[in-house]
Each structure stands twice: as structure tokens, then as C-alpha cells.
Amino acid sequence: xxxxxxEICGVNTSDLPLLKPAQAKELLVKIKSGDTQARETFIKxxxxxxxxxxxxxxQSGENLDDLFQIGCIGLCKAAATDRDGCFSTYxxxxxxxxxCSALILSLIHI
Length: 110
Fold this sequence. Notes:
There is one protein chain. By secondary structure, the protein is mainly α. Helix content is about 65%, strand content about 5%. It has a two-stranded antiparallel ribbon with strand order 1-2. Helix 1 packs antiparallel against helix 2 (about 35-45), helix 3 packs across helix 4 and helix 3 (about 45-55) crosses helix 5. It is globular and about 40 Å long.
């Protein structure tokens, strides 16, 4: 299978790992026990979610690289506080809220 390269915010999506649901659950268990390598693997495996959310702000005129970094903070928070539900749904909301909060703060400080 050919790997299609899409580069967004300097991230080559063909280089990102794909996590199977069983693998993701296993990583979450390891994360809760303090395994930092599992946390890094899990976060890298979910960067596509951050990129998909950042793309929604493409027409906003904001720096997408900055929004990507802010979204990664939301992803890290989601990985640290997951409660065994549907991770992508939970993470989506945290990533979205993190980006929107940063945008609101930037408007207040103008």
C-alpha cells in the first residue's frame, strides 16, 4: 500500500503511526501507570485528530502552526485525563476548546 504524503503544519501525515483500537486501549492503560513512552506513542498516533481540527480554521487567518501547537496541548490534556470513554470524542472537545480559548485570549489582548 502506498503512503500518501500530506504535509500540514510541517507534519508529514504518512509518517504518523496508525493505532488500532486494541493497541490504543493498551497504551491508555500503560499511560495511567506512568509509562512516558506509551504516552508519546499514543499522542503521535492521534496527531491526525489535531490536524483535522486545525484544518477547520484554515480560513480564519490565524497561523496554523500556532493552532497546531495549541491543539497538541489539548491532545496531551486529553491523554492525561481520559476516563475510558470514546477517546476521539473526548479529545476532539478538549482540542477544540483549547484552540478556541487561545483565539478568544488573542482577541482580548489586541
